[in-house]
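Propose amino acids for all 127 sites.
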């Protein structure tokens, strides 16, 4: 059994931050679960374009308000508490936060915790 406390883990190297977002990785590849699980906070007023070409991601909104735009179709979906979205087609997207977003995220394959977003908005696959 794995038990971790977000309030403790956010003070360790499991907390990863970039421009106007941070993510606390509660489960990583080396935990052997087949997915990783993160609590990610997106700063209000920020906009981020991602394209997870090598990963599937599902996201559940815990709090905040924003929108996600599917860049292939131009369709925009509102993100509020209780809304889930899944990038089942490796969808290139832009996430905008009107109010600070707190999101629960799962990645498959799991991330290692050392990834950084590449110029195209993706993560490389782990070795």
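Proposal:
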């Amino acid at each position: 059994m794995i038990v971790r406390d977000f309030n403790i883990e956010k003070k360790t190297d499991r907390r990863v931050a970039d421009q106007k977002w941070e993510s606390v990785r509660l489960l990583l590849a080396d935990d052997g679960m087949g997915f990783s699980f993160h609590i990610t906070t997106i700063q209000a007023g920020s906009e981020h374009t991602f394209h997870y070409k090598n990963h599937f991601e599902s996201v559940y909104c815990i709090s905040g308000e924003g929108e996600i735009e599917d860049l292939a179709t131009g369709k925009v979906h509102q993100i509020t508490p209780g809304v889930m979205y899944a990038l089942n087609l490796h969808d290139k997207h832009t996430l905008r936060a009107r109010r600070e977003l707190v999101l629960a995220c799962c990645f498959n394959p799991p991330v290692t915790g050392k990834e950084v977003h590449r110029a195209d908005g993706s993560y490389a696959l782990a070795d």
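Helices lie at 6-9. The radius of gyration is 14 Å.
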